[in-house]
Amino acid sequence: MPRNKTITDEEILTMARSLFLKEGAKASTRTLAKMVGISESVIFQRFSTKEDLFFTAMVPPAAQLEAIFNIHPGDREIVTNLISVSLQIVIYFREVMPIFLSLVSHPSFDMQIFLQRHTMPRIQIANRLIEYLNAEAALGRIQRGNVEATAAMLLSHLHNLALSENIGDRQPIDTNRAISDAIAALWKGLAP
């Protein structure tokens, strides 16, 4: 008799993430077991509790910083670089936002414990954006004094765009226009 295919933890977590995103933390492990094609007991052999399964499945994906920041200080116009980076950040925030909203809405979620175990991608992105802006400032292409505030404002705006889309903002958002307008406004404070 042929042996059944072994299901990896990652396959279980992928299906669990999908189910939790659709149904929330109340999603049934019985439903998950059927979706994956295993018994419910196998799930609990690998993940001690449903809560453990939830928090393991709902870890936001890492930011692909090299892909997002595919720019080099001194190359092209800074506004063009910022628009390019901003579009990539919004794409990432769109992917992460539903996962993070589900995660923080769980009754047992504790931000301090989460931060002890995981790095917030937003912090990594902010650091890379500040690093890029500082490099441009060192080249004299932007003012030095406004780098951290500019990064914080731009990331807040990009985060808000993704959040608005996720919570079903009634007004459709032209992401490209929203990014271009924000960078144009920020540029007034950055221009040398």
Describe the biggest sheet?
none
End-to-end CA span: 74 Å
Helicity range = 55-70%
The helix/strand series, from N terminus to C terminus, equals HHHHHHHHHH
How many helices?
10
General shape:
elongated
Mean pLDDT: 90
Based on secondary structure, the structural category is mainly alpha
Share of β-strand residues: under 5%
Radius of gyration (CA) equals 21 Å
Contiguous low-pLDDT stretches (5 residues minimum) are: none
Number of strands: 0
Explain what you see.
The protein is mainly alpha-helical and 192 residues long. The mean pLDDT is 90. The longest helix has 28 residues, at 78-105. It has ten helices and no strands.
Describe how the helices and strands are arranged:
Layout: H1 9-23, H2 29-36, H3 40-46, H4 50-57, H5 65-68, H6 78-105, H7 111-117, H8 121-138, H9 147-166, H10 175-190
Helix pairs in contact: 1-2, 1-4, 6-9, 6-10, 8-9, 9-10
Features:
192 residues, mainly alpha, 68% helix
Summarize the structure.
By secondary structure, the chain is mainly alpha-helical. The chain contains ten helices and no strands. It is elongated.
